[in-house]
Amino acid sequence: MKEAWRTSLPYFARHRRNLFLGFGALVAKSIAGAAWPLMLKQGIDRITQGFSVEAVWWLAGAIVVLSAVKGLFQYWMRVLLIGVSRDIEYDLRNDLFAKLLSLSADFHGRLRTGDIMARLTSDLNAVRMMQGPGVMYWCETILTFVLAVGVMASADWRLTLAALLPAPLITYVVVHFGQKIHKRFEAIQSMFSSISSRVQENITGVRVIRAYVQEEAELQRFETLNRDYIERNLKLVRDTGIFYPLLGALVSLTFLIVLGVGGSRVLSGQLSLGEFVMFQGYMNMLVWPLIAFGWVTNLTQRGTASMKRLMEIMNETPSIAAPAAGSRAVPTPLRGEIEFRNVRVEHAGRPALDGISLRIAAGSTVAIVGPTGCGKTTLVSLIPRLRDPNEGAVLLDGIDLREFDPAVLRQSIGFVPQETFLFSTTLADNIAFGDRTASQTRIEAAASAAGLASDIAGFPLGYETLVGERGISLSGGQKQRTAIARALLRQPRILILDDALSSVDTVTEDRILHALAQETAGRTAILISHRVSTVKDADQIIVLESGKIAEQGTHEELLTLNGAYANLHRKQLLEEAIETA
Length: 581
Hints:
By secondary structure, the protein is α/β, with parallel strands linked by helices.
């Protein structure tokens, strides 16, 4: 709990002005509220002592004014303190989102998308309730309790002591049930994350589910998760259902004590009727703090559990980051020479790349081929530092990539990943994603170079066509060409295409490759493909097998070797012959 509040302090400090004003309103409201029973005592005592009606009316008017003042400060207390919690929620959500964008791919591989979404919604709301209503009612409860008990004790300490006899029992009940509620809520939030992840996966993969007729099976799995979630919530409801009535019963016991002990002291003349009514007024004031104590404890326990889950994200350290000692500037002009020196990369304890040594000359075009799982994607992911090698080094213009800030390095690289991802916006916005200031002319030029312009011309809205979630309204080839246009728009010194032409036909592929040859002239280009037709014109072709370089050379040189590349070439020639037969 201490860690949760310690983490919250910088956020409170950002809004300290409104926080102080809010607490000032809280103090004024509490003082006005505590003065109300005193005024009531004065009025009743004056009536019983035979004071004039005019004096009583003046007291009644003062009570009304006091109530209005209390209401005014109570309004500003809520506006300011609850407003601060909303501001903190805004800041915390921005910080969490920025943190998520800074974290490396290995983190997102460990934490499911649904779990992240649950933390940024349900958990964040629980933290806001703790930092807003929780803080406000904690302070109000303590201050009201101190003021009320102080005035009561000054009037009759014996009756005050008797009225507070159930207080230790109330404290025990609150602490006991608070711990149970905390554990229950942690389990519920964990279950909510699982449900969110399941829903996200099913919605994303709805086509696969329908294609394999797994709707009923997925419904049953979801029903199991949902039932478990409901059962955990019902356990929390049962604990809460016992907690609040028990707390109410203990509060009622204090009224019974005041009525019995206070009534007898009034009858014996040890306490005036006005003082007895004042005690009842203060006991009424203490009812909400005693009940709020339990409610606020519940809020605090929930908020603490949720803050712990949020801090797991905030405390995460990116595995790919700028060097602590300060990063080097990317050479200007950047030539684009890339060198791999005895690079080894492990994945899940197994080598994905093993002893790779390779030099890619600046301005050259290099192709990488090989069977699935041989390490092609892993190799090119090292260049923009999407991951770092476990052993060895990757150099750019003779400088180790780990000396650069990844964000600065990636500005010089255009990367089209194997899995194409488009955002739920227009084609123009997707193409200009890497450069939001790009003009329409540049967007159209990039689309033309990627072989997409003719397709866009056939769309009713042209470049303003909405592509839908993950580009669902486009074909696979159109999505790949949009991603290529996005990379070309940045005019990068290094262009990496990871099997980016796999979904286009050979005619379109030839047209795109011809345009790319013009676009990448003088730039370093790296192509990954399973098609020989894609890579045959490259300056250098690398054949990977089991994470190692098996062959290396030009198209003609590799055919002469009569090895893995030559076998791939013969196989694809045979496939083309069969297709055209």
